[in-house]
Design a protein that fits this description.
The complex is a heterodimer of chains A (249) and B (125). Chain A is of the alpha/beta class and 249 residues long. Chain A is built from 8 helices and 7 strands. Helix content of chain B is 34%, strand content 8%. A 3-stranded antiparallel β-sheet of chain B has the order 2-1-3. In chain B, helix 1 packs across helix 2 and helix 1 packs across helix 3. Classes of the chains: A alpha/beta (249), B mainly alpha (125). At the A-B interface, strand 1, strand 2, strand 3, strand 4 and helix 5 of A face strand 1, helix 2, helix 3, strand 3 and helix 4 of B.
């Protein structure tokens, strides 16, 4: 069973379990910091073709014209045991990166939405994405020095989140705090798994979809002064957020 | 938006250093799809004709001598994930690596015992 003993062709050993956890949030919210605090952060990038024209051909012709976009991800690995490894993927929260999320989310244990209360609207797309995909997630509020703090309840109202959804204050620089974030997520996933019939039906998903649009309209959210900066997310929600299908097959 | 490595990508340099030039322009890999945390291991089969493989194929093959994953390889060779996927699929076609789906293939299949093990592991960090 030891990896070193694998000398023959054929099936690979099955003992290795890889668990994916996603970390979503707007630019500069502390994703890289959090991944680095709790794991060995490593370089990982993806170069995604934007053009469909040369897809599926073996020819090098057209390569020069092809437009690709490079996306750097925060990638961390935590070896819990020899056969149990956690992979953390920090991804930009903007909708234009959703083509990547679709792959990352496949088979993921769950997600952490890292939020900054000064720019709460930045995490709207992520929350909506996970709600609609029925991927369990928690909110981690990165408490920057000097940042105005809001209670978890205020944030819950502003984000229109279910009462059972954990919201945790964290310091993304602290290893212990980052650990606590991941522990909270796994505990939440366990508790969701306990609920007998809690999976969202398509109708419920549609409801949460609509609720997402109304998220920014809540007067109380404004009265909480959580919108210190103009909420960019609002313009996103002015039109129905139609999820971009994957650009490639 | 030029970056330091894109300085090499002008017309004179040609497509050689374009990421997908390593894959001869292919942007999709052959054969069955595989997850980015899929397990990869070299089969130790002899390379029939090394000249058919790019240096990058050999780098990837070298890394797969010990069991690893698609993302680990991409990170170690510092090539874009999409490119590494294509290189791996080439190697799989030649029977040089075995690629296997990660054990919990879907979130719904992460059983409670595994979740508890993860929890226990995290608390012990």
């Amino acid at each position: 069973m030891a990896y070193g003993g694998y000398e023959q062709g054929g099936a690979a050993p099955r003992s290795h379990r890889a668990i994916k956890i996603l970390l979503a949030g707007g630019f500069g919210v502390g994703k890289t910091t959090l991944v680095g605090a709790v794991s060995e952060i490593r370089p990982l990038r993806t170069e995604e073709p934007l053009s469909e024209s040369s897809i599926g051909t073996d020819s090098a012709a057209g390569v020069e014209r092809k437009t690709t976009t490079t996306v750097a991800m925060d990638f961390g690995r935590i070896t819990l045991r020899e056969d149990l490894v956690l992979y953390l993927f920090g991804t930009p929260g903007q909708e234009r990166f959703w083509f990547m999320w679709d792959e990352l989310a496949l088979g993921a244990l769950g997600a952490v939405v890292l939020a900054d209360t000064r720019r709460l609207a930045d995490c709207f797309p992520a929350i909506d994405y996970f709600e609609r995909r029925d991927i369990p997630f928690i909110i981690a509020l990165n408490c920057f020095d000097g940042a105005r703090r809001h209670s978890a309840d205020d944030v819950r109202i502003a984000l229109d989140l279910d009462p059972g959804l954990p919201i945790i204050m964290c310091d993304a620089r602290s290893r212990e705090s980052a650990k606590e974030v991941l522990i909270t997520l796994v505990e939440h996933v366990l508790s969701v798994a306990d609920e007998p019939v809690s999976r969202l039906s398509p109708v419920d998903s549609y409801h949460s979809f609509n609720r997402g649009i109304s998220r920014g309209d809540r007067p109380r959210a404004f009265s909480l002064a959580l919108w210190a900066t103009p909420p960019i997310g609002l313009s996103l929600w002015a039109t129905p957020p139609i999820r971009t299908p994957r650009g490639r097959g | 938006m030029p970056s330091y490595d894109e300085r090499w990508l002008d017309a004179k340099a040609g497509p050689v250093v374009r990421p997908y030039a390593l894959t001869r322009g292919r942007t999709r890999h052959s054969g069955e799809a595989f997850d980015l945390v899929a397990t990869v291991i070299a089969t130790r089969r002899r390379v029939a004709d090394p000249s058919t493989l790019a240096p990058e194929h050999l780098s990837v093959l070298q890394l797969a001598r010990a069991q690893t994953t698609v993302v680990d390889i991409a990170s170690d060779v510092d090539l874009p994930l999409g490119v590494v996927r294509i290189l791996l699929a080439d190697l799989r076609e030649l029977g040089l690596v075995a690629i296997q789906a990660p054990v919990p293939a879907k979130a719904q299949q992460v059983d409670r015992n595994t979740l508890r093990e993860v929890l226990h592991g995290l608390r012990g960090l």
